[in-house]
Each structure stands twice: as C-alpha cells, then as structure tokens.
Amino acid sequence: MRGCRQTNPPMNDSSPLPIVPKPAPWIGRDRKSPQFYQGLRMKTDTHLHQQLEGMIGRLVPPAAPAGPRARVLDLGCGEGALSKRLVDLGYEVLAVDRDPARFRADGADFVSLDLDDPAATGRFVDEHQGRFELILAIEVIEHLQSPWAFLAACRRLCRPDTHLILTTPNVGSWWSRLWFLLTGDLWGFGPESWDEPGHKSPLPAATMRGMLRECGLECLGVTPAGCLPILWTYNWKRLLASLLMLPLRCLMRGEKDGWVLCYHAKPAA
C-alpha cells in the first residue's frame, strides 16, 4: 500500500478510488480476527486501514516538495491505529475521541470530544474549521445519536478544497441481505449490537448519499471496502451461505460487496 501511495500521482476528483487489497475476493478464509498496527487495535473490518492508506495517499499526498505536511483530522480515532499509521507516512494528525485514556498513538495531537454533545462539538468546530486538507470519519457515524448533526459539523469544518472520507457498515452487502432474510435484523445492528460494538444508526447507501447532499457535501464516489469474500470459506456455515447466495448475485442491485462502504466527499459548490 505504501508503494501504491508513493508511485501513483495524485488523483483528480472524478477518478475512482483504488482499493488494495480487494474488498470482494472470489475466495477468502477471513475469520475477522483482531488486527493491530504498532500494537494499536484497529477496530475496523479486515484490511480497511491498509486500503485507506492507499486511497488517502493518492487524494492528499503527505507533503508537497519542500512544503508543509498535509493536515488530517481523524474523528473517532479510538486507540489511534489509523492516526499512528498516517503520522508514520508523514501527515500532521489531530486525533479526536471521547476517551483520552484509550488513545496511545505517538506523534499525533489529541483532543477529547464527545461527538454526541452538540455544545462541545460546536465549540470544537468553531476552533478548528478550515484547518484540514483531509477529514476522516472511519466507522464512526453509525455509533452516533444524530448522524445528520455529525455530517453538518463535518461540513462546517471543511474549507472549499477539503476532502472528507467516511466509512460505515454496508447494510446492503450480500451477507447483510441474507441475515435480514433469516432474522429480520440488519447485520451488525441487532439487539446484541446496541451496547457492543455500539451500532445505533444503520445507513444504507441511498440514505448516506441524500444526507451528504442535504448537509452541503458533494458525494464524489462510493467504494466497497473491508474484506467480504464472495465465497467465504473459513467454516462450513459461511461457505454454505456463500453458495446459496452466489446464484442471486446477478439479481442483486446496489452495493452488494464489501463489509463497509467508503464515501468520498467535498463541500458542494
């Protein structure tokens, strides 16, 4: 992924975002085991941070020749695995999360903020708006009480050339469609998910596109990400489910691949 970042020129806004490793390999044995970077837990789907590294490097290079480092805002950073990865790549990172005791990433600045607190979020926006070339909200919005207010705050933080990259679970994936058929719940948003991992707001792709638009953000692309194999083979139940859904792929509309969807947006003109 670093090689991809270093050898490819910056993309224009209309280019599709590259994804490596592939989000929908034909065959995979992914067990969704915990992943770490420099000892920091990546609380995201498999490969997502690696995929984001390549995407970010092409959209916003770490620094122009003899220029200042690009400034990145990492909202909902957790322990700081992605913040640390970006610091190591040469970015200037401001990491934000509710619990300062969890944050352990060297080299990034940190601000404690409860994104569900409108007054505190408003103060943060007033202090930091217009400072960043890139704003990240990776697996955050589905945890919040008011996704609309969060997107409006992201818009206020932007200057005209700021890129916003946001990810959220793909409730339209082929696996989520099967799960809904069997249980009546969207995958990752059932009763057991309310407290852990704390998923509150399932957001289909059509809803996210509409919310971005109404919050003053232009959606430049939606990319499947994470790793959801087409034939998921790590146990017989997943393999059987994959085989049952395989003939239906040609009938499925919308974003059926990828555990998560990655949205690339900029302020609307």
How does this model look, in words?
By secondary structure, the chain is an alpha/beta fold. It has a single domain (2-267), classed as Vaccinia Virus protein VP39 (Rossmann fold). It has eight helices and eleven strands. The protein has helices at residues 2-7, 48-59, 81-89, 118-128, 147-157, 174-183, 205-214, 236-245; strands at residues 27-28, 35-37, 40-42, 71-75, 92-97, 109-112, 134-138, 163-169, 217-225, 231-232, 260-267. The strands form three sheets. The protein has a seven-stranded mixed sheet with strand order 6-5-4-7-8-11-9, with helices on both faces. Strands 1-10 form a two-stranded parallel sheet. Strands 2-3 form a two-stranded antiparallel sheet. A hairpin with a 2-residue loop joins strand 2 (35-37) and strand 3 (40-42). Helix 4 packs parallel to helix 5 (147-157). The longest helix has 12 residues, at 48-59. The radius of gyration is 18 Å and the shape is globular. The relative contact order is 0.17. Residues 1-15 have low confidence and may be disordered.
In short:
The chain is α/β, with parallel strands linked by helices and 269 residues long. 29% of the residues lie in helices and 20% in strands.
The termini sit apart by 32 Å
CATH topology: Rossmann fold
Please state the overall shape, judged from the principal axes of the Cα atoms.
Answer: globular
Number of helices: 8
Query: Radius of gyration over alpha carbons?
Result: 18 Å
CATH class: Alpha Beta
> Describe the biggest sheet?
7 strands, mixed
CATH level 4 superfamily = Vaccinia Virus protein VP39
* Number of separate structural domains: 1
Helix percent reads 25-40%
List unreliable stretches of 5+ residues: 1-15
The assigned CATH architecture is: 3-Layer(aba) Sandwich
Instruction: Indicate the structural class.
Output: alpha/beta
- Please list the strands of the largest sheet in the order they lie side by side: 6-5-4-7-8-11-9
Average pLDDT: 91
The run of helices and strands is HEEEHEHEEHEHEHHEEHE
- Count of β-strands: 11
Strand proportion: 15-25%
